[in-house]
Each structure stands twice: as structure tokens, then as C-alpha cells.
Amino acid sequence: MVFNYLNSIIGFKKIAFITIKKTFYLNFLFISSSSLINAAIGFLFYLIAARYYTKDELGIFIGIISIINIVLLMTRFGLDQSIIRFLPQKYPNSIDLTSILVTTASSAFFMVIILSNIELVSQQLSIVRTHWIVYIILTVINSFFLQLGASLLAMRKGNYYFILNNILI
Fold first, then answer.
1. Could you give the number of structural domains in the chain?
2. Are 78 and 102 in contact (CB under 8 A)?
3. Which of 27, 52, 74, 93 could cysteine-pair with 158, CB 3.0–4.6 Å?
4. pTM of structure
5. Which residues of the chain carry a pLDDT beneath 70?
6. Rounded distance between C-alpha atoms, residue 63 and residue 67, angstroms
7. Residues 164, 161: Cα–Cα separation, whole Å
């Protein structure tokens, strides 16, 4: 009787281990393929853009994208990493809306500050002032999706992360 009980526990642990191992590999596959597809699309985009635009136009575009990425990096405040670390323990199936709101609002705030002082960064980037609302909206959307992606990674939903990165964006 004790042997049957121990065998049932060991069998359960074995099945649970196989399930955990399977979801780990599936999440790894989705996250890795998402990164690979994003890198390939970015590379192809720059190859095509280099053919159709001048060096100056491409440089301005890369400068604007770099400013947006720096703002997004500064306004993470480490919340994306803390979500991955702490969200599965307290709320395993929820998305932390507070961190999404804080990072999105702060990215919009910092983007407004940078756009209002864009001449200090670069004289060539002053063209951004004509369409400043577009860049703020792009920054807010990117901030929202970056934080949402961190929440999906925390919930071990690699398939949804793949969809978010490669289909929606």
C-alpha cells in the first residue's frame, strides 16, 4: 500500500515535471522565434529604406527612433523586470495595470520634455516639431506594448508574447 502511494506521488511528479518542461520549451521557442523575426524584419526594413531614402533622411529617422527607444528605456524604472520576478507569485494570471499606466504616462511626459528641447539634442531633428503629436502617440503605444509584453512573459504566455510582437506590432 505504501509502495502504491509512493509510486502514485512519483508518477504525478514525473507528469508535472514533463508538463513544466514542455511549457518551458514552448515558451522558449515562442520568445526566441519572436526575437529572430523582429531582428530579420528590422534588418530587411533598413536594407529597403537605405535604397529609397537619402543618407540624411535615414539618419534623421534613426535619430528619432533612437530618441524614442532611449525614452522607453529610461521610463521602465525596472518595473518590467520586477513584474517578471514578482507577478507570478502574487497574482499568477493577471496583468499589472499600475505599472503599465506609470510607465506609459512617464514616457509621454519625458517625450514632451525632449521634443520641447529637441534643438539641444540636434538641429536636424527639429523637423520633429511639425508632427510632435505623432511621436508622442508612438512612444505611448510602444510603452504600453513593452509593459504588456513583460506581463505576458511573467505569466509564462510565450504564445501571446509572440502574437503581440509579431502580429500586432
1. 1
2. no
3. 27
4. 0.73
5. 1-21, 87-96, 168-169
6. 6
7. 5
